[in-house]
Amino acid sequence: MKRYFYLAIMIILMIAGMIVVYGAYLNYNDEKQIASRMESRVVSITGARVQVRPIRPRLEMDTVQFYSQNMTDAVALASGRLTKWHVEKNSPVHKGDVILSMDSEQIPIKMQQAATKVRRAEANLARAQGSFQRQEQLLGYHATSMERYEEAKALYLAAQEEVKSARAEEELYGVQASWLQVTSPVDGDVLIIYQREGAHVESGTPVALIGDFNHLRFNMTLGDVDARYMELGSQGLLRFADNGAWQKIYDTGYAAGNRGRRQEIRAKLVEITPPLSEPADIRRAVWEVDNCSRLLEPMTYMGLILSSEKSHDCLTVPRKAMVDADFSQVMVVDGEGIIHLRSVAAGISDEGFVEILDGLQEGEVVLTGNLEGLKDGMRVDVSVGDE
Fold it and tell me: pTM higher than 0.90, yes or no?
């Protein structure tokens, strides 16, 4: 009985092993069929040809710091009490306009003392001059000594110097009196009034901030790739990106006709260093913007785009053909529909296209559709559109 029992066990184990082997075979065969189907599967997707197109370079800037070349403090040049402001905040002024009157107890007294000193010196000069002229006449008649003549002459010359000194002192106090009228140092608007009427300030105290915001400037650092198509005097349009936002720290007004966030602000390249004639990987560019809309102030703004007004013919691909945010890879499709992941060197770009400096040839096809899930070596059916 035991022999039959063990024989039955062996038969059962053999049948179980055959079942396991058969199952593994079926599984392997199914996987092979699936892999074969995947290899023969063709994905339909859109593409575009690499070709020369006109492109208007644009630069996207996360932050831009604007500044004014004509913004400075009006300073009290004399100590005194503020008696009257002749301007208000945001009042337009010209260089030299009186913006504030001050009063000083000391300066009028010193001016009066200086005037008295001048009159005394002039009277002394008249006496010395008369004495000298008499001694000069007497000397001609040999009626006086040379010693008395020289003494009269010395007194006359000293009286002249005394008058000069007194008049210089009087002029000095006159200048100090003029300092009690504070004037604007530049053309512009009154941005901030630091002091109020009745306050006492010392000499050298800023009393107001004056600035001209009609033209502002900003600096930017450029790689040589972005600077290749620039030259002094190049024009561009500056606009806020969709997420750009601004505020006003000086609370200046807006000009009539401004278009707010939709405003395109003209910018002009006024300086670039090192010069474009010299080799350099990094350059500093200075742009001047026409701010007649009065939308901008000297401060930091976020989310701006600078677009060139001039287009350039370049070898390009659509922006949506770029695989990564660094614009360093694209997916190229060969004549058999096979995808090849290609590294490229990108140059300038605009809203629709990216310049290709190296890595692609004109006429090649790059994928522009939904690139998610696509890999190197996959087969695709490309529909080339007119980008």
Answer: no
